[in-house]
Amino acid sequence: MAHAHSHISDLTASAVRRLALSLGITLAFVVVEVAAGFLANSLALLTDAAHNLTDVLALGLTWWALRMTARPAYSGKTYGYHRAGILVALANSTTLVLIALGIFYEAYQRFVRPPAVRADILIGVGVAAVFVNLGTALLVRRGSEHDLNMHSAFLHLLGDVFSTVGAVVAGILIRLTGWNWLDPLVSVLIGVLILWNAWGIVRESIAILMEATPADIDMEALLGDVRAVEGVRGVHDLHVWSITRGLRTLSAHLVTDDIPISQGAGVQAAVSELLEHRYGISHATLQLECVDCVQSDLYCDIAVNPHAHH
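Structure (tokenized):
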């Protein structure tokens, strides 16, 4: 257990360092991109700069949340600070939605009156931005598949990669055709991409905060597997939820024969091992009850009688 906690601490420290480096690089490039956007009169560049600015906020919040989640649990917060990352993911995705709406409004104004765009600056800065954004996205990619907080920051940066590629394409086409309306068109496409990514994070963050069952867990299959464990006669008062994307929790009452405590502990251990290896549920609270106990609903509604004990 001590080795596992040490490994987690090492991963967190590494992630914090990579986030700090990404934040510094992104902030420096925002200044360059804003100046170039005004010089080139390009909404695509200014849009990308705005998105990069939200990345600075996102990376800063993600950095803070990682440091918070590393703090140990105590009597006042028995689950620790793991949910700080979910709150940050929700904040990050909400800022993305607001940025996308602002992009749509400004793009509409430019569709009505398309200004002249300096395509050479748009192309040059756009190419540089592709490499900067790709580099920072790769810095925070490690661990993002299991951490919604890191994943939201990664999507921020990955969205910038696609948006800067779009800006470069727009610059090339404007240079060849003189169609300045391509600049706001690319901005709209970038805004749609941002909105799509943000909605996925908002939806998952809210689901976790609402204690929803993880989307990839088939409850019927889980019930069948638990009931198939030797010694289990039934299951009720079942709840499955997530503390974070990678930390899943389950509580349930297991009905058994009237058996000794030592034998019941073996049933609990078998069910816990099944849940961890087949469903990724690393923390299961299992209460044993004999067949003569009063039964409850499968998914017990705690609001019906919060003081009831089965």
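The first strand starts at residue 234 and ends at 244. The helical segments are 2-40, 43-69, 83-112, 119-141, 148-177, 182-209, 219-227, 261-279.
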